[in-house]
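Q: Here's a chain of 312 amino acids. Please give me its 3D structure as tokens.
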Amino acid sequence: MPRPLVESDLVTTETLTKPDSRAPQDLRALARRHGLTVSGARPALPAYVRQLWSRRAFISAFATARLTAQYSHAKLGQLWQVMTPLLNAAVYYLIFGILMNVQEGIPDYVPFLITGVFVWTFTSQSIMSGTRAISGNLGLVRALHFPRASLPLALALQQLQQLVLSLAALVGILFCIGEFPRPSWLLAVPALFLQALFNAGVALVMARLAARTPDIAQLMPFLLRTWMYASGVMWSLDHLARSGRIPDLAITVLQGNPASVYIDLMRFALIESFTADRLPPHVWALGAGWALVAFVGGFIYFWKAEETYGRG
């Protein structure tokens, strides 16, 4: 228990006015003896994790509230959570599947495309929401004291909730084309878990970057669109490799990028024509590695700037 102040602890007026005064050092020592800390100072990493865990109910409630309010002013309401990726998939099918005929040689191209679109949308929306996590909630950040990582994590959780709702539409489409539940469908759960960890980690990185440089939010749609084209959402990277038009090293890089890895894992789990082909074990290793590096690295990177959010 902190001891009461005594006369020897007090700093005199004469001490404060001396040019070579040691008053600041004396005051810091006095504050430390009585358990005082700097307002908004970054806590140690273990303490920060404990604070974040204690606010898990807030993170969940914030994510659910944002999800509910997202389409509250639209007449079709929450149906847009499913319709948006479906409409995107329809446009991609018209352009790439029919006009460019990239579906040639790809069995079950419709579920192939829709699975890719849904999985990619999960990653891209998580990253975009991360860019707005701090800058879009400055009133909350400046008014209340709480672990700031709660915001990008809550927004990443919101995107996971939205994906789970959208997957209901994907399952319905699979039923319509003759795909029915198999044991491999259970692999979708760990695949989504790894992707959710990766998305949360990147969202944390983007939250810190965009908090200092808001213009990043304007640049991200162009970068994400390029990443989408490089991740095999609309076409098969395996077919591209067999065509011989791209060097093997470039194909390896494209197939190893995290978005492509998580799309492959979901296609392998849900689409029978892909499940029939043995998925190389290194794909699961890559998925786990990307998730671990992104989440741990992103969390530490965000935590190191904890005391700067909301200033300026």
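Q: Can you summarize the key feature?
A: The two ends are 36 Å apart (CA to CA).
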